[in-house]
Fold this sequence. Notes:
Blueprint: H1 6-19, H2 28-50, E1 55-60, E2 63-68, H3 70-89, H4 101-109
Antiparallel strand pairs: 1-2
Helix pairs in contact: 1-2, 2-3
Amino acid sequence: MAKKSLKDYEEQVRDILLDASKYHSSYEPLIRSLASALLQLDSANKTVSKLKSTTITKKTRYGEELVAHPVFALINDTTKTIDKLCRTLGITSLWGQTVGHEEYNKGMRKKK
């Protein structure tokens, strides 16, 4: 599989919005931000697959302690950013399913 670039992710998001008839030129900054976050997540996931250990040793004034590798915090933050941008654009999935903001919010409030 070829490495995806920022432009590839932008085209993917733009195509999803165009297919759902939700594209507007004013969304370009959001599209670029989402594409950047997707590229960052892809890079972080590749880093995780190359890790030999999921923890690192951190020196504190009390000695050493094991903490999660910083890439996991990056993945968590990036995932939250992607989720927020997708909701803003009305995208519930990057695989093409879109709904209006009202429908998405109503679905999120349903209790099981």
